[in-house]
Amino acid sequence: MSAKLYVVHGSHPCATVQRALDMKGLPYEVVELLPPLHAALQRLRFGTRTVPGLTLESGEKLVGSRAILRRLEELVPEPSLVPADPDARVHVERAEEWGDEVWQPMARRLVWTTLAMEPRAMVSYQDGSRLPRLPTPAVLALAPIVVGVERRLNGAQEGAVRADLLSLPGHLDRIDGWLADGVLGGQTVNAADLQIATTSRLMLTIGDVRPFFAGRPAEAHAMGLFAQWAGSTPPGVFPAQWLSA
């Protein structure tokens, strides 16, 4: 059995699925798409604009990290991404759902907004890409178009981003609580670990967001599972009043 995985470089749900495929030992080919062109290509291929998308040898098509992880669990049961104990499984699946529906979109809004304010940082997010590296002048020329489209697609308006920053400490308290309770960070990496740690790791590339994580278990959790990650934006990009609350 083999698979083909359609990704955008640096995408946190794509990284979730890649790690799961590696853990399961399932052979796969990576097809990297260029944002925001990926939205149209994915819609043509999968009927929806988002990544990741996975095609199997059988012709089966899957979209979205949670759906893909569930199917991988059926195809390759070991190592399992969910606990065998029913009660523990419920907690992991709830954390995974939160990671997908709440935590992931926050990272997109924060990243694309900081790149709108500091477009030169986009160059660093190309590191490790399979696509030809664009020179800095080309990146800067394309930045307003790419960032503008991505902010619209992801609802990254000022009000939403300011609300994200205001709620960030509470969300990190939630992750730290799951780590303390063993829902996350156990001896066996589970689906919730993958969903949440990838998003946390992407957020850690944002200079104005890193201080929120500093010294927290959530920071160690992300760095422990995903030490290497492309991209970095400097601190001082977001207006001070966005961070003062």
Question: Which structural class fits the helix and strand makeup?
Answer: alpha+beta
Q: What is the 3D shape?
A: globular
Beta strand %: 5-15%
Instruction: Tally the beta strands.
Output: 4
- Give the number of helices: 10
- Distance between the first and last residues' Cα: 51 Å
Radius of gyration: 18 Å
Considering DSSP H and I runs of 4 or more, what fraction of the residues is helical? 55-70%
Please state the average pLDDT score: 97
Low-confidence stretches: none
Lateral strand order in the biggest sheet: 2-1-3-4
- Major β-sheet, in short? 4 strands, mixed
Order of helices and strands, N to C? EHEHEEHHHHHHHH
Could you give the topology of this structure?
Layout: E1 3-8, H1 12-24, E2 28-33, H2 38-46, E3 53-56, E4 61-63, H3 65-75, H4 86-117, H5 136-154, H6 158-181, H7 191-203, H8 210-213, H9 217-225, H10 240-244
Parallel strand pairs: 1-2
Antiparallel strand pairs: 1-3, 3-4
Helix pairs in contact: 1-3, 1-7, 4-5, 4-6, 4-7, 7-9
If you had to describe this structure to a student in words, what would you say it looks like?
The protein is built from 10 helices and 4 strands, in the order E-H-E-H-E-E-H-H-H-H-H-H-H-H. The protein has a 4-stranded mixed sheet, with helices on both faces. The chain is globular and about 45 Å long. The mean pLDDT is 97. It has helices spanning 12-24, 38-46, 65-75, 86-117, 136-154, 158-181, 191-203, 210-213, 217-225, 240-244, and strands spanning 3-8, 28-33, 53-56, 61-63. Helix 4 runs parallel beside helix 7. It has 245 residues and is an alpha+beta fold. The longest helix has 32 residues, at 86-117.
